Amino acid sequence: MENMLLWLIFFTLGWILTDGSKTEEDFMWHLRKIPQIVSEKTFHLTSPTFEADRKIMLSRVCGIECQKELPAPSLSELENSVSYETVFENGTRTLTRVKVKGLVLEPTQNITTKGASSRRKRQVYGTDSRFSILDKRFLTNFPFNTAVKLSTGCSGVLISPSHVLTAAHCVHDGKDYIKGSKKLRVGLLKMRNKGGGKRRKGSKSRREAIGGDQRKGNKENLKKRVKTGRRKESSQGQKVTEGKPSFQWTRVKNMHIPKGWARGGKGDAALDYDYALLELKRPHKKKYMELGISPTIKKLPGGMIHFSGFDHDRADQLVYRFCSVSEESSDFLYQYCDAESGSTGSGIYLRLKEPGKKNWKRKIIAVYSGHQWVDVQGVQKDYNVAVRITPLKYAQICLWIHGNDADCTYG
Asked: CA-based, 20 to 30 A from 405: which of 203, 312, 336, 357?
């Protein structure tokens, strides 16, 4: 009980810690005009081999120390990066070229990423601050019920009745689709009922017995059996509440990956495009989490971010964590949220107030990509990195969900 109480205290503090100098408007979702992405032409590609190992291959970009404004990527470069591949359940693949309209080009300020496979991935920093969510009252309710597990070993988040957002490298290494992604499945956590089958069987037998007694006219026997049946039903009802969590697996109908990540052997994948969208073969009935544009650190309540995933060292337990953001750039959030492998692909979310309303709303503002060593003013530092949902990425993911840009004007 004390551990649960302590957990609830930390959980609450994660939401309400704010800077006293900030006003209510500073912690509010502000709708922004979204650039328009228009599908121009779709080409059929050869089927992938699905033989790659899951790993990140990164290109080098400018670091936090870049204080001066850098030339923004050209519109044609951005259009090439947000053009996208689609892989279907039968293994076929297409490439869709797009045009971008209404985009305001801004200078980029990023971190230099360097491969350092020989260095230890310190994904838990100091004291392990993760919380395993074991109580079914939390597991089966929003926002924790939006977290899903991929059959490739990653996590993801439900962002529509049929779509899961995850990290691109969970299904593609930058050159080819990884092993197991051809028959990719998504696991939705649910409670497994104990004794459910017995209860249904008992109910049927009881009805048959009652029917037989009625035909015989034996009223005393009928009353006795009804009482016995009620006691059994009550007992079995208690067993149902003692169910354990399990995964309900659903096949993936297709998956979308930005060309900025899937470069087909023509260069290393860029970490700022480490996101992918999976369409489920069967829609789910769970409450999902909407997308939001990633605000700056100053707009984060208490500077905190939150996410839940299925870390490998916790044996299928859902693991929640929150922490403050240490650094930010145009496309990334750099932080020290404790996260072991398996949580990659989790949706990072915030809880901000909706404009003109009294309620607060959680939205996905980034995708957790994983641990990276980075170069900051010539010094190697390590962070856990998340890819921000920018207006352009919001437009792309929205297009993938809806098939057109009609519902993607503001975000």
From this structure: 357
Examine residue 123 and state whether it is found in any structural domain, yes or no: no
Please indicate, yes or no, if residue 122 is contained in any of the structural domains. Answer: no
Residue with tokens 């990659």: 344
Number of domains in the chain: 1
Q: Give residue 255's pLDDT.
A: 97
Amino acid in the structure at residue 404: N
**What is the rounded CA–CA span in Å between residue 23 and residue 292?**
20
54, part of any domain: yes
Question: Which CATH number belongs to the domain containing residue 284 in this structure?
Answer: 2.40.10.120
- 290-291 and 112-113: which strand pairing? unpaired
Task: For 203, list phi and psi in degrees, rounded to 5.
Answer: -65, -40
Burial 145-181 (b: 16+ CB within 10 A, else e): bbbbbbbbbbbbbbbbebbbbbbbbbbbbbbbbbeeb
Task: Enumerate long-range contacts of 24-31, CB under 8 Å, 24 or more apart.
Answer: 24/353, 26/298, 26/299, 27/299, 27/301, 27/352, 27/353, 28/352, 28/353, 28/354, 28/355, 29/292, 29/352, 29/353, 29/354, 29/355, 29/361, 29/363, 30/295, 30/355, 31/355, 31/410, 31/411
Rounded to a whole number of angstroms, the CA Rg of the chain reads 25
Tokens of 265: 């052997």
* Amino acid 113: pLDDT: 47
Report pLDDT for 225: 46
The tokens describing 343, both together, are 């949580």
Structural domain boundaries enclosing 62: 28-103+129-191+243-402
CB atoms within 10 A of CB 341: 16
Residue 106: predicted pLDDT: 61
User: What does the pLDDT read at residue 81?
Assistant: 93
Report yes or no: 203 and 235 within 8 Å, Cβ to Cβ. no
Task: Please provide residue 334's backbone torsions phi and psi, each rounded to the nearest 5 degrees.
Answer: -105, 125
Pairing mode, strands 185-192 and 147-150: antiparallel
> Looking at the domain assignment, is residue 368 inside a domain?
yes
**Residues of the chain whose pLDDT is less than 50?**
1-2, 4-6, 8-19, 58-69, 111-121, 195-217, 219, 222-223, 225-242
How far is Cα 362 from Cα 29, in angstroms, rounded to an integer? 10
The pTM is what?
Answer: 0.80
Q: What is the pLDDT of residue 310?
A: 92
